[in-house]
Structures are given as C-alpha cells and as structure tokens.
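Students often ask why inverse folding is considered easier than folding. One informal answer: many sequences map to the same fold, so there is more than one right answer. In these notes we will look at a single instance of the problem. The structure comes first.
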C-alpha cells in the first residue's frame, strides 16, 4: 500500500467514494492529510485555480513540515515566528481597539457639536418666530415641549 504521492498529487489517487466527484488528497503544511474535493475557481487572470491550494495546502507531503499557527490560521517555520505572530496579533487587536475607541470619541464629539449647533439654530429660529406674527400663538400654547421650553417657562414665571 505504497502509492506514490506523485500520483495522488495529480488528483487521480484515492477517491474514497465511487461515483460522485473524486476527492483530492491534500497535505497541510504541518503534515496533516485532508481528503476533499478540489475547489476550482477562475481567478481574475482567467486561470483556473484550486482555492484549496491558495489556503496553503499542498498536493504532496511537506518536505519540511511547518508549524500550524492558531493565531493566523496559517503556518510558520519556527516557534519564534508563531510567537511573533501572536504578539503582532495582540498588538494589532489592541491598536484596533484604541482606534475604535478614539473613533467613537470623535464621533461622539462631532455629534455633540452637531446637537449644540442644532440647538443654537433652533433657538435662533424660535427668536425669529417669536418676533413675528406667530408670537401670540407660540406664547399662548403651553411652552413645555422641550427642556429649553421648561427653562424658559420657569424663567417667565
Ligand atoms: Zn501566525
């Protein structure tokens, strides 16, 4: 039972199931065997590619197996690189969080500015309206619809 990997590699090898699509035997860079269907797609250059190979899987057992990295879901040559990947990832995650927080703060500030601008506009608008024909109408209705209205009403009392 010593099939040449070369044959398997072309995709004619083990095809566990009869009928149905033949499965291809892949090897992960860390040496695990994966038997599954090829995942062909046409790339932007018009070439047919097996997406499984794009993930890093190989068609023959790796000569120098690599280490699977659970941080990036890919493979590295050494433990040092895995550690570096982990650190880099933590760094990026932290950076991302700081950035997100900063953005949140900026958005909040922008929103506050907008609200105060709107308030200013609104009170200007109200002033203009009060100075116009609508004056009586506005004053006669109970001015309690907004906080400002309440404040103004209290001041008025
Ligand atoms: Zn990694």
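Output (designed amino acids):
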């Amino acid at each position: 039972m010593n099939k040449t990997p070369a044959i398997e590699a072309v995709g004619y090898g083990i095809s566990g199931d009869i009928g149905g699509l033949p499965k291809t035997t892949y090897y992960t860079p860390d040496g695990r065997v994966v038997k599954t269907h090829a995942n062909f797609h046409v790339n932007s250059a018009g070439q047919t590619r097996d997406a499984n190979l794009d993930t890093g899987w190989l068609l023959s057992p790796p000569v120098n197996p690599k280490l699977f990295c659970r941080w990036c879901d890919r493979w590295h040559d050494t433990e040092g690189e895995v550690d570096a990947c982990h650190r880099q990832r933590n760094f990026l995650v932290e950076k991302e969080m700081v950035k997100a927080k900063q953005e949140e703060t900026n958005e909040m500030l922008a929103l506050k500015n907008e609200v105060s601008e709107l308030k200013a506009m609104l009170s200007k608008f109200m002033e203009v309206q009060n100075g116009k024909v609508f004056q009586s109408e506005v004053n006669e209705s109970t001015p309690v619809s907004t906080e400002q209205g309440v404040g103004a009403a209290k001041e008025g009392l």
